[in-house]
Amino acid sequence: MAAPPPCCQGTKELLVDFDETKRTKITRGKKRGTHERQKILDILAAAKVCTVSYLHNGEELRVVPQLFGVHEGWLYLHGSVSSTMFKNHRQDKQAEGQSADAEAGAVVKTKMAISATLIDGLVLARAHMHNSVNYRSVVIFADTVHVITDKEEKDKGLRIITEHVLKGRWDDPDARNPNKAERDSTAVVKIKLSECSAKIRTGGPNDDKDDMKNACWAGDVPLYRVYGCPNADKTTKGRRISVPRYLRSAIEDSRGASGMAVKPSDEGVLTKLGNVGGGRQQLVSFLMGAVLAACVALILA
């Protein structure tokens, strides 16, 4: 048996797939659906933003995009304590006779649905009603939210979210950690990953037999999530601060995964910040634009 991933080592629960529930049962496209824990975690690891839907005051539906992080079976969210979503949790606690800060990690009952989607390609069919996209998506349901008020636990949650956005950023020795005022004005909550499902589509179009005779270009067009060349602000350029290693690695990894020939590891781009955003980047952008235009022309021809 293969060794469990680092995030799951020593936690038996995190090696078990999610149970199918009434809310996570796949009713359409069952072959594309899955409750496999690792596939769901992989999709969440690749996504940067999730969409959070919740009931405000128990009746009004609200939807908001959120940065997030995942760690050891929990999904972490953060935002201003004055935002509607996080204020909603405090109101629920007060309605139950608890003060907003009475208990670190207090559990609040609230209906919530969270989704994250990655678009991996366009699927162009011979009939418009068969056009589609290749995708990986996750849907999570929850009935409770854990509100974090403990200082160390809150910093842990903020670290998880920051590292999810860009691995290595939180541990940058030159970046400042949250101060008391920032921590007090920021709400952090976590949601247990217990009701989860995913759907995944790959491959080309599924055309009707009668449409196969049409002289229409059909196939799929891959889409990639690629880091561009970093644009230093004026102060960074003036002090000629080098791009940190963790950012270089993230850029190189994204370019390598996409198979792009132009690598951002070029020292002239990533270490000589005076060149970042200059002629070389414009040349790369021009060439990439030309290739994209050629692809579109071939598709529409």
Percent of sequence in beta strands: 25-35%
Query: What is the residue-averaged pLDDT?
Result: 83
Count, helices: 8
Please give the alpha-carbon distance between the first and last residues.
50 Å
What does this structure look like?
The chain has 301 residues and is α+β, with helices and mostly antiparallel strands. The chain is 29% helix and 27% strand. The chain has eight helices and ten strands. Strands 1, 2, 3, 4, 5, 6, 7, 8, 9 and 10 form a ten-stranded antiparallel β-sheet that branches. Strand 4 and strand 5 form a beta hairpin. The longest helix has 22 residues, at 279-300. The radius of gyration is 23 Å and the shape is globular. 19% of the residues are buried.
Task: Write the SSE topology.
Elements: E1 33-34, H1 37-46, E2 49-56, E3 60-67, E4 69-71, E5 74-80, H2 84-95, E6 106-124, E7 132-148, H3 151-165, H4 180-184, E8 186-192, E9 195-201, E10 219-222, H5 234-239, H6 245-258, H7 267-270, H8 279-300
Give a quick precis of the structure.
With 301 residues, this protein is α+β, with helices and mostly antiparallel strands. Helix content is 29%, strand content 27%.
Primary descriptors:
single chain; ten-stranded antiparallel sheet; 301 residues; disordered N terminus
